[in-house]
Amino acid sequence: MGRMLVFDRVRMVMFVCGAVFLLYAGSLAAAEKQPPGRPPAKVVVAPVREQQIARTMVITGTVEADLDSLVASELDGVVAELLVTEGQRVKKGDCLCRLNGDLLERQLQVETREIEHLTVLHEKAKTDFSRIEQLFEQEAAARQLFDDRFYEVRRTEALIAVGRARVRHLTAELAKKAIYAPFAGLVVEKLVEVGEWVGAGQAICRLIDDRQLVVTIPVPAASVAYVREQSSFLVYLREGGKPLAGTTNRLVPVADRQARSLPFLINLPAGDGVFAGMEAMVEIPAAPPARWLTVPRDALVTGGEQMRVFVIADAMAQPIPVQVEGYAGEDALVVADGLQPGMVVAVRGNERLRPSQPVEIIQ
Question: Are 264 and 219 within 8 A, CB to CB?
């Protein structure tokens, strides 16, 4: 009996020890599964500034060639040769197309032979007149015969002059059967093919000067005064890349009857990656200059319907809601309670920041 009691006590002790061991092991496993504390987020910062600046608006326009021509034929005829295709670059004076000129060449040959014939008649008329003139001076020929021979010389002279004029006209027409590039540029569209009939004034290809590109934007009438005072503009291409520095070309002072906007052309710098037909956004002034708080565009973070910036202070990030009133270059014009000049805001690494999150400022 006593032996069984001892055995039960030993079993109880072993059970308790096993339970304690399992609890201890579970606590260790739970401790290992707990995540360590988050390291500080790395951010790049920039200061909040107060500037005298004009609020801007962004208007979408189209990149176009300032010189864009439908090269046409002055004469009608059948296309004998088409010497260009789309995408081909040409120099000023290069032949683009030739029309068939067989009929003109034959007419030119006829007129040339006719002049030769008239020249012979003219020589004969001058000889006859010389003889009659001598007889007339000797009173051996009638006045009527003298006059007839005199005016025959004049008539053949006039006929030769008319013939030569016709030759010049036909030569000019024959030369115009070849159509030349009026300026150096790029062929962007061919509008005829070999064997087609071309009427006088009909375009044979479209030629642009892609070295002189402009952006055409519709400027609201209310902003015309501010646009005229500015000589350079930032142009952003829809395809991305760095903004381009555009310069004023001209304002067309005729407003659209529906939109009440005026076409404004801005020169683009020559370079690769910009082509006619691209979509471009241009910043133009929308109001007189005023004092504004500005932050870099990269500082803006979209959170629902409200824009915000993360102010960095004491190695902590704190969000401040802002209202964007416009843009000026790479800066945004903002209105916000609690935002002061001299504060620093995150411009890199701010997309995943949380309120009161520790941060580390890097260069």
Answer: yes
CB 87 within 8 A of CB 205: no
| Residues 328/57, Cβ–Cβ less than 8 Å | no
pTM: 0.65
Helix axes 102-137, 143-175, angle to 10 degrees: 160
What does 259-280 look like in DSSP terms, one character per residue? T-EEEEEEE----TT--TT-EE
pLDDT at 12 over 60: no
List, for residues 175-228, the tens digit of each pLDDT value: 999 999 999 999 999 999 999 999 999 999 999 998 999 999 999 988 888 888
Closest CA to 261 of 226, 223, 215: 223
CA angle 80-83-85, nearest 5°?
120
Measured CA to CA, the distance from residue 359 to residue 352 in angstroms comes to 11
| Structural element, H or E, at residue 4 | helix 2-33
Tell me the pairing of strands 306-313 and 261-267.
Answer: unpaired
- Distance of alpha carbon 275 from alpha carbon 197, whole angstroms: 32
How close are the terminal C-alpha atoms of the chain, in Å? 82
